Amino acid sequence: MATTRRLTGFKPTGHLHLGNLLGALRPLIAAQDHTESIAMIADLHAMTMEHDPQRLRALALETATVMLAAGVDPARTPIILQSQIPEHTELHYLLECVTGFGEASRMIQFKEKSAAGGPIRLSLLTYPVLMAADILLYDIDQVPVGEDQNQHLELTRTLATRFNARYGDTFRVPAGVRPEAAARIMDLADPTVKMGKSNAAGAGRIGLLDPPEVVRRTVARAVTDEFAQVRRHPDQPGVTNLIDILAECTGQQPSDPVSYGALKRDVTDAIESLLAPIRARHAELAEDPAYVREILAKGAAAVRPIAMATCSAARDAIGLLQ
Ligand code: TRP
Question: Which CATH class is domain 212-284?
Fold first, then answer.
């Protein structure tokens, strides 16, 4: 039986953080020997909201560099930059021709982001169709997605099924998988929201490249409560999050009872031992951006034949003269 093919996508709208490492990168690295994984940097998706060209380019390179530093092995897992493989945008258009305006505008993320005010890019509306193209291009079986991407994955399945029914069997219909990490890592300053690349001030986010003193300060300032009880409890989202982070980082539950101060020290140490090697490896790799760019070129070369074959089959099926 062929191995399962997985696609993990990262949108370079900010610096990769602890939530990305525990929720997506570590599972990707762990799955390298039993799946055929592709790691994609979705730079086109980072242009669906106001963006700065310099920063986008820098973040694309940084994201690739951090992936390598964290242990993604490019010999087993192609690391690709979405914009370097033109079939993504080509298939995007073909899929737009099987997508309804209504179903695109009903996407929760579109509704939320377009309600925020300011000009709305058309690409924000069609974002999930591009995501469907990313996935369907590579005959993907499994897509690890957080809750916020569930609806987009469902749309991908709908579009694949619809295209296959109308124009003949062309796409493999992918399944969503929950990342293996047990816990959702929440923001340390506001433990009711997920740690995110673009949360407002970033005061509660631990960047994978944050220096040790910043990590220590961010954990020290993490929101807790007045209960003074170290336990996982719905009324104590901040403390629960710290316990979860500790458990994810070390594979152990905290030995109780401990004070909040002791918990925070343990969390700081645990994060630090996870980040120190990544930081060091990143510093080496960052000296040689040409090497990282070559990894991206090799990744593109490795997967492009699959993308071209799928695109060609889709063009043929939908009625374009080949
Ligand atoms: N939309 C995803 C996010 O915001 C990123 C993404 C783009 C993606 N294309 C993908 C994820 C394909 C998985 C598969 O996180």
Answer: mainly alpha
Pick the CATH number of 5-183+289-318 from 3.90.350.10, 2.60.120.10, 3.40.630.30, 3.40.50.620: 3.40.50.620
Supply the residue whose CA is at minimum distance from atom 14 of ligand 1: 9
pLDDT tens per residue across span 144-176: 998 889 999 999 999 999 999 999 999 999 999
Look up 194 and say whether it is catalytic: yes
Nearest atom within ligand 1 for CA of residue 128: 1
pLDDT tens-digit map of 269-287: 999 999 999 999 999 999 9
The 8-class DSSP code of residue 16 comes to -
Whether pLDDT at 182 is above 70: no
pLDDT of residue 184: 84
Mutation to probe ligand 1, out of 131, 152, 155 (largest number of atoms < 8 A from CB): 131
Q: How far is the CA of 42 from the centre of ligand 1 (A)?
A: 7
Contact between residue 125 and residue 105 where contact means Cβ atoms under 8 Å apart? yes
* Ligand 1 atom 13: residue of nearest CA: 9
Q: Output the ligand 1 site: residues, CB below 6 A.
A: 7, 9, 11, 42, 45, 131, 134-135, 143, 149
Burial category of 43 from C-beta neighbours within 10 Å (exposed 0-12, middle 13-18, buried 19 and up): buried
**Could you tell me which residue, 180 or 136, shows the higher pLDDT?**
136
Tokens standing for residue 62 = 């940084």
* DSSP-assigned states of every residue in 34-94: TSEEEEEE-TGGGGSSS--HHHHHHHHHHHHHHHHHHT--TTTS-EEEGGG-THHHHHHHH
User: Among 93-107, 125-139, 212-226, 244-258, whose mean pLDDT is lowest?
Assistant: 244-258
197 catalytic? Reply is yes
Spell out the domain ranges in the chain: 5-183+289-318, 212-284
Q: How far is the CA of 37 from the centre of ligand 1 (A)?
A: 14
